[in-house]
């Protein structure tokens, strides 16, 4: 049990380490190192997100049915390393666009992959999800700190080298002895989204995820540039971005203890309400102090949304449907919706940086409404019954 928990924690750490480079720093790398404008860099990132949506929605569930999850991890990491090398010599828009699409078809599949590993091991090995997921957050925060220090010395051009080193580390960790549940064939049953479509609760949850997770588009893609606008040096940008991740780490470390029996719909409504507050406050009070204060809300806007979704798929779906559910979650929640809102927030950011955050706050409003519908339709009676016990 302990070895299996440790194995999953390592996978979360190394994969999230590279994610901590790719998500917050890639737009800045395109602007500062490759010389693209913010609008052009946004179009490249958004195109990658659209490709990510396709791979997460279709390629990942398909591949996960054909290969054991542990073996699939090795294939995806090796392919990601090869494709990342293509970025080094390219500088033209069309060359970078082609490279971005190819890389985004493969590398982002590591995210639904590690979450599917966790979901399967929750069911078969009784691992503590929050404990292993918190190590993913530690990996992310380590990447932010390292990137901040290195770019302050060598500029944004160093980002791709850190990213490549992270990919190599994932490959080495994937060669560790696999738990039995990660070596088992996934079966030859045909991939189907029918079970997901039959679950109305899952469909409502996806609506909430799309609106809430999508609102992180402005923060993920322009957070580094926004801090530069506030005259924060590279050395401290990683530190300030880490406030959100520290809040996330604390959340996941305590999540199972305090939230295991809480209403899923109430958690979703709390998370989306926090998103409205977080982005609106950044618009109203553009300062380093407010940026740091709103970073604490990341525990709710991301952490609580993610935890509530994982709880829902664990309770609602069978093991065979988990890769498809994770694929849909990544494709729509952190892929397509974020891609669309990257275009929108990029346009708003060019006009005025604060408007990009205000737009994200407005987008989160429908998520609160959908969460209310879920509560009334599925969870109001159980909550009332528990209150009178």
From TrEMBL:
Domain Major facilitator superfamily associated: 7-353
Highest taxon, organism lineage: Bacteria
GO cellular component terms, A-Z: plasma membrane
Transmembrane stretches, start-end: 7-26, 38-60, 72-88, 94-114, 135-154, 160-180, 201-222, 234-254, 326-349, 355-376
Keyword tags: Cell inner membrane, Cell membrane, Membrane, Transmembrane, Transmembrane helix, Transport
InterPro entries: HcaT-like, MFS_assoc_dom, MFS_trans_sf
Parts forming coiled coils: none
Subcellular location: Cell inner membrane
UniProt key word tRNA processing: no
Entry annotated with the keyword Cell inner membrane: yes
Recorded topology in the membrane: Multi-pass membrane protein
GO molecular function: lactose binding; lactose:proton symporter activity
UniProt protein name: MFS transporter
Organism the protein comes from: Bacillus salacetis
């Amino acid at each position: 049990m302990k070895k299996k928990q440790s194995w999953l924690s390592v996978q979360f750490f190394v994969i999230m380490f590279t994610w901590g480079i790719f998500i917050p720093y890639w737009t800045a790398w395109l602007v500062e190192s490759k010389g693209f404008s913010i609008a052009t860099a946004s179009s490249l990132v958004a195109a990658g997100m659209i490709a990510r949506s396709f791979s997460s929605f279709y390629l990942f569930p398909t591949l996960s049915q054909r290969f054991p999850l542990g073996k699939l991890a090795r294939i995806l990491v090796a392919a990601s390393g090869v494709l990342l090398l293509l970025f080094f010599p390219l500088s033209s828009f069309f060359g970078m666009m082609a490279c971005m699409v190819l890389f985004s078809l493969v590398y982002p599949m590591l995210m639904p992959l590690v979450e599917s590993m966790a979901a399967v091991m929750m069911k078969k090995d009784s691992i503590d999800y929050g404990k292993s997921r918190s190590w993913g957050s530690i990996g992310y925060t380590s990447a932010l700190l390292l990137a901040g220090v290195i770019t302050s010395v060598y500029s944004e051009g160093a980002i791709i080298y850190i990213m490549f080193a992270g990919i190599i580390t994932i490959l080495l960790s994937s060669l560790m002895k696999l738990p039995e549940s990660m070596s088992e064939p996934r079966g030859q049953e045909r991939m189907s989204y029918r079970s997901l479509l039959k679950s109305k609760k899952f469909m409502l949850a996806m609506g909430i995820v799309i609106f809430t997770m999508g609102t992180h588009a402005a923060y993920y893609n322009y957070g580094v540039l926004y801090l530069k606008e506030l005259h924060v040096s590279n050395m401290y940008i990683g530190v300030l971005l880490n406030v959100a991740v520290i809040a996330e780490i604390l959340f996941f470390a305590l999540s199972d203890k305090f939230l295991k029996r809480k209403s899923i719909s109430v958690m979703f409504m709390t998370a989306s309400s926090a998103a409205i507050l977080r982005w609106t406050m950044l618009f109203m009070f553009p300062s380093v102090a407010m940026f740091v204060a709103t970073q604490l809300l990341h525990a709710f806007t991301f952490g609580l949304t993610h935890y509530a979704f994982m709880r829902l798929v664990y309770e609602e779906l069978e093991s065979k449907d988990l890769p498809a559910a994770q694929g849909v979650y990544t494709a729509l929640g952190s892929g397509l919706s974020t891609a669309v809102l990257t275009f929108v927030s990029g346009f708003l950011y060019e006009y005025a940086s604060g408007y990009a955050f205000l737009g994200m706050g407005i987008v989160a409003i429908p998520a609160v409404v959908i969460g209310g519908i879920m509560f009334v339709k599925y969870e109001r009676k159980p909550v009332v019954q528990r209150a009178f016990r």
